[in-house]
Design brief:
Blueprint lengths: L13 E10 L2 E11 L4 E5 L6 H8 L7 E6 L2 E2 L8 H4 L1 E4 L11 H12 L1 H8 L5 H18 L15 H14 L4 E5 L7 H18 L2 E5 L3 H7 L2 E6 L2 E6 L1 H5 L2 H9 L7
Bound molecules: adenosine-5'-triphosphate.
The site of adenosine-5'-triphosphate (ATP) has 11 residues, from strand 2 and helix 1.
Pfam families: ABC_tran (PF00005), BCA_ABC_TP_C (PF12399)
Protein name: ABC transporter ATP-binding protein
Keywords: ATP-binding, Cell membrane, Membrane, Nucleotide-binding, Transport
Length: 268
């Protein structure tokens, strides 16, 4: 799979500029700004209700931003329709998994390839010129990802029959198949057992290192975040209260207060 760095290195891959979102009287996001550089693993953390999911949903164009803007690779996201997200290079996983449960692992990953090559899908359907090349390229990429994600033993099994942790890897495969530049991971550690959790950290780093994919993750699991993130952004009540390396945010007084003030775990 090709690495997708057509960025000069100075332009952030993702620039979130003063976004605010309201739900009635609730200010879910209040003027949040931060950037993610190409190749970074950036974690978005904060207590329950801090606005993390709302921000992810703005990025996926599920919610419109009330004010402010988001630029991806220098291009304003608001100008693009939602169905173009995979096409421009933003992929994501969901807390409750986005998979075709009655299909096999291989077919789920293959569907991910098609979500990028929209035209390829129609070419294949109508047997237009170029269809065979796209199909064989998709099959090759699917095989590569199945190996990368250690899914070979279950490649021809139906997804619904597999353990949750394995299904989560299939979902990652589906997202990676679309060759994203930016991968949004929504609580990837949620529901994983101890062993799976350990390999998840390594896997996320491998995704960045091997494919050059930039990662933005929302995660409550602090030891995972602190172990893999280059940069951590902390939200509380819709505001950004800190941003920096794991070491910097861990010792930030407002972060300590936000986590100790409620019944949440310490960010240590
Ligand atoms: N669709 C919605 N309608 C009304 N209020 C909402 C909606 N989505 C989120 N909110 C509110 O916006 C605030 C931020 O919620 P959000 O889900 O973004 O927080 P979060 O940081 O993702 O929390 P968690 O860690 O619990 O998932 C909360 O007060 C929440 O109740």
């Amino acid at each position: 799979m090709a690495t997708h760095h057509n960025n000069d290195g100075d332009t952030p891959l993702l620039a979130i500029d003063g976004i605010s979102v309201r739900f009635g009287g609730i200010v879910a996001l209040d003027g949040v700004s931060f950037t993610v550089q190409p190749g970074q693993i950036c974690a978005l953390i904060g207590p329950n209700g801090a606005g993390k999911s709302t921000l992810f949903n703005c990025l996926s164009r599920i919610y419109p931003c009330g004010s402010g803007g988001i630029a991806f690779n220098g291009e304003a996201l608001a100008k693009l329709p939602r169905y173009r997200m995979a096409g421009i290079g933003i992929g994501r996983t969901f807390q409750n998994l986005a998979l075709f449960r009655s299909m096999t692992v291989r077919d789920n990953v293959l569907m991910g390839c098609h979500s990028r090559h929209h035209a390829g899908f129609f070419r294949a359907m109508f047997r237009l010129p170029g269809a065979e090349r796209i199909e064989s390229e998709s099959a090759r990429r699917t095989d590569e990802l199945i190996t990368f994600l250690d899914l070979e033993p279950v490649a021809d099994r139906v997804v619904a029959d597999l353990p949750f942790g394995t299904q989560k890897r299939v979902e990652l495969g589906r997202a990676l198949a679309a060759e994203p530049k930016l991968l949004l991971l929504d609580e990837p550690a949620c529901g994983l057992n101890h062993e799976e959790l350990h390999s998840l950290g390594e896997l996320i780093c491998a995704i960045r290192d091997r494919f050059g994919i930039t990662v933005l993750l929302v995660e409550h699991h602090m030891s995972l975040v602190m172990g893999i993130a280059d940069k951590v952004v902390v939200l509380n009540f819709g505001r950004k209260i800190a941003e920096g390396t794991p070491g910097e945010v861990r010792s930030h007084p407002e972060v300590i207060q936000a986590y100790l003030g409620g019944d949440h775990a310490q960010p240590a």
